[in-house]
Amino acid sequence: MKRRPDYMENPDKYDVATEVLSSAINVLKATGFYEEEVLLLFKQISMKKPRSPVFLEPV
């Protein structure tokens, strides 16, 4: 089997997180949220207790 490039073998978790969060921001903005609203949604998520479900309040 062909060997994968190093960046695929051991991806940097912060690089992955950056791409995921950037994509989420872009998707939310594409659906009509303003960037300030997106940041408020992320703030709600950041205040959630571990292992609890996500319920967002309208911003």
What are its keywords?
single chain, about 60 residues, mainly alpha, 3 helices, about 60% helix
Topology of this protein?
Elements: H1 6-9, H2 13-30, H3 35-46
Describe the structure.
With 59 residues, the chain is mainly alpha-helical. It has helices at residues 6-9, 13-30, 35-46.
Low-pLDDT sequence parts = none
Radius of gyration: 16 Å
- Main pleated-sheet profile: none
Pattern of helices and strands: HHH
Q: So what's the overall shape?
A: elongated
How far apart are the termini?
50 Å
Amount of beta strand: under 5%
Number of strands: 0
Q: How many H/I helical runs?
A: 3
Q: Specify the structural class.
A: mainly alpha
Mean pLDDT: 91
Helicity range of the residues? 55-70%
Give a short synopsis of this structure.
This protein is mostly helical. 58% of the residues lie in helices and 0% in strands.
